Amino acid sequence: MSSDRTRSAILAAAEKLYADRGFGDVTLRDIVAEANVNLAAVNYHFGSKDELIAELFVTRSLATNRERLNELKAAEEKGGGRAPIDAILHALVGPTLRGCLGPDREGSTAARFMIRASIESVPPIRRIKNREVDHLRKFIAAMRRAMPGRDDADLYWGLHFALAMAHHTIRERERLTKLSEGQCDLNDVDAIVDRVVAVSVMALTAGETPAKKAPARSAMPQGRLTRQDL
Amino acid sequence: MSSDRTRSAILAAAEKLYADRGFGDVTLRDIVAEANVNLAAVNYHFGSKDELIAELFVTRSLATNRERLNELKAAEEKGGGRAPIDAILHALVGPTLRGCLGPDREGSTAARFMIRASIESVPPIRRIKNREVDHLRKFIAAMRRAMPGRDDADLYWGLHFALAMAHHTIRERERLTKLSEGQCDLNDVDAIVDRVVAVSVMALTAGETPAKKAPARSAMPQGRLTRQDL
DNA sequence: TTGCAATTCAAACAGTCGTATGAAACTATC
DNA sequence: GATAGTTTCATACGACTGTTTGAATTGCAA
Known about the structure:
The structure is a homodimer. By secondary structure, chain A is mainly alpha-helical.
């Protein structure tokens, strides 16, 4: 089947061009020129431009989510069904950050594409992202097991802030480099992951809703919640 | 001068439509229809579509930045030239969050416009945002005065994470509401500001680069750094 | 080899977009 | 009230967009 070659060529060309120039100014004609295929091939193989973008994003997104769940599962098995909170958060933000940052990923088309997808948020991608809620609920469930005493709202805020730091770092990495004049090392991905996880754990273990009084913490398995370096 | 009326009508109509439908699918023809002016008026008064968008964003952005600096200045004067870290962060994220969240701001066109600008990131807006570095440096300077013992890199990361949480909350507020099934109250803006500030302060006071050992904290004016509720 | 389906291709379609133009209407000054 | 400058207007331009079409080509099975 020669059609697979055309399909793959389109996917590769589209991902490369979107990664380099963004969704805003890449036309189907640009893509087919890069892929050396006919203009009509895109609609023939994908139906529409949006479906092409969706397929690109779904592929990469599923890979990240799978990696997340694998890491979460491994952590839960290691902990006998209950993973410590830092491991859960590590599984949440690790794959995303590792996939988009780091010197080896610098030239990766897939990484640059996902960064674009994180910045520009075009309709077909937005639609897919909105279905990610179910995926995140699995992490909320794991967090609930790790911190049974915690209010659900606090768990949601903790997860929300963890994703905030991860995505903002990916999205604004150039600005952070410029602002800090290189003092923030965006290439040391492991250190970034650790930093994001550490802050998230702090938010979850010490951060009560400021309006409330801090409750007794005896219900929480504190020893396991605190990272050794905090 | 009747020209001011046309100009204002265009600005108001554009802000409303962009706020409601995003930059992607609002054309000049939509704008002039909403404003009840002629199509050519946009290019006559603003030069181009991009310059219209830029003017809209610059106006709102300057207002926020001014508010930030006023709050920072007030905090520094109150502290005799050195504001506590939580007040600095409060001045950084407070105006942004207050401007975009909250029940009273729900119907505000300006707020919804800024949310759009935060989500879609169209070229003319991106250009303006890249000039914001100087503005942020003033906050870094204030943070350096508040925490003289801290590594600059840690300060940059702290500011970065504070902005991450604020912007991500604005940008993904619908998803957070959906994910938490309403358990996260996006209408209590003060509580959100306090929460973001609290986590940011924790990141700055306790968060060392995980690879390093935590240094002695004696150099830091701890008593003033820690919020009463932490 | 014949026949049929899958794939490729050049070309055109039907819009939409931001912008430009030149005349008309208005405004203010003298 | 004539004049000069500003602002509005209808209209068209030129280019670009995603998509469709129908014929040509290819690949594979009988």
